[in-house]
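Researcher: Last one for today. Full complex below.
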Amino acid sequence: MPSRSALRPLLRFVKLQLASSQPQRYFSSTVLKAESPSQPTNHERTTHFGFETVAEAEKEARVAGVFSNVASSYDTMNDFMSLGIHRLWKDHFVRSINPGISSTSPSTGWKMLDIAGGTGDIAFRLLDHCTNINNSPQSTITISDINPSMLAEGQKRSLQTSYANSPRLDFLVANAEHLDTVPSNSVDLYTVAFGIRNFTNKEQALREAYRVLKPGGLFACLEFSGVTNPLLDAMYKRWSFGVIPLIGQLVAADRASYQYLVESIEKFPKQQQFRDMIRDAGFMVPGKGWEDLTGGIAAIHKGIKPVEKS
Amino acid sequence: MAVFLRQHSVRAALPRELLTTCTLSLNSRRFSVLNRPAPNYPGHVPLTRIEKAGLAIGSAVMSLLNPYRGDLIASLGEATATPYFIYRLRDAMLSDPTGRRILRDRPRLSSKTLSIDYLRSLPDNTVGWAYADWLDREGVSADTRSEVQYIDDEECAYVMQRYRECHDFFHALTGLPIVVEGEVALKAFEFANTLLPMTGLSVFALTRMKPAERKRFFTIYGPWAVKNGLGSKEVINVYWEEQFERDAGELRTELGIEKPVDLRDIRKKERARRKVERDAKKNAHNGYP
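Model: Here's the assembly. Have a good evening.
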């Protein structure tokens, strides 16, 4: 796996755009030869891309390549990989946030920001919860993603909802580490679901989250985490490293992207460590600081931006 | 499948032929998905037996449902090539002087190494011209085939890659087109000649073909494939890079292959005949208000 070029998904995406000029061939497989990724030099800052060590500047491009490739089959693959359980996780995540709640009725709307929310899974659930459960038609959401393909997929999906061309929903291409167009102290809710694992600099992203949230605002993160039960962990790891890349190959024609996915889950800080990172960014983390889902396969982390003492 | 023999004494007692055929399997040790061994060549992904079986079954099912997924055909080929078949093919190469030269030189056939303009410029009875003409007629280019990933032995991985890259040359030699019918006929020929399981399994694509096409396969192309595949020399041993200027008919005679009936011609005639019948029916109907 370390020797496998992960730039290939990026080049394959480009090739797909050009492929329509060639006639379709049965039984034949052809791929553009990708150049091998550059090795980080000694004085460059490095980070991890799955189990590979890469220069920091390179990670963003390679993650972009992975997600451009998986955009269209994202939900199908999610269903296969989690056996549909990801839907339950996302439902529970949104319910536990209870967005749109307010002391007035109809409520003064929440201003929400969903980071790495490309395909819109969380955003649509949040809006539905606001509208239908908390009577908050004034709540709005911005879906932000660094990858235009994922965002395009989200825009396509939004056409099936009632929010499609309404002022309640808008889309933003942005890097979570530099949310330049989002003013400080402006959002009530900042969510990131299954995204922060892919960020080059998680601490920077957490600091940006802290900046854009209003005092009293909620930071909520749904992410893969450490399985607590050793037996479940053993089975889960074998599922992750054996079955998931295989499904990626069969369904999405891309083993490398899904190998990256399971490696990045492995490398991501587990519950306690991540909670400490959230605290270090300045958030107030009440109680234990996280909630395990399905035995710790996923976990919900929350933090509140403290109100400044006057 | 790794033939896992713990005791050296047992290995020593085996006949040499069996040892040669199962060479690498004896050296590989069982591993789990959590501690894969280092790759044997760039791009190598060592798979456990269960993963290989899963890949074989999944590829077979998915590629039957969607025959455009050439990458699944490739992985099906790799997953089913061991334990015996790819070793047999490699040994077939080792038994032939040209095959041995190919294994030593390791030439690659791709859009980078082939100059189509040069091949087009050759006289029209040559192998090179036949190849360039076939590419033009079918409207395809000399593709860069995907790399072999799942075969553990490095030399066998090259044999698989060579087989994959020669596929279009087999097309040119036999004149079969790229439509499903032509591909299935060629796969049947390849199965009879190379014995790779994937080529045999590809014949299941017959289930997706029209009845007329299936009938043509069973009456014309199937028998042709079996007769020529079994009767000819191993096509994997052809050093294509050296054959470009050779007369195509001479190469075919040397290998023992006869060109089948032109499939595109038959299909064109069939289409014309059906059109005439349809028009006749329409005119007959128009006679009755």
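The CA atoms of residues 212 and 270 of chain B lie 10 Å apart. The two ends of chain B are 70 Å apart (CA to CA).
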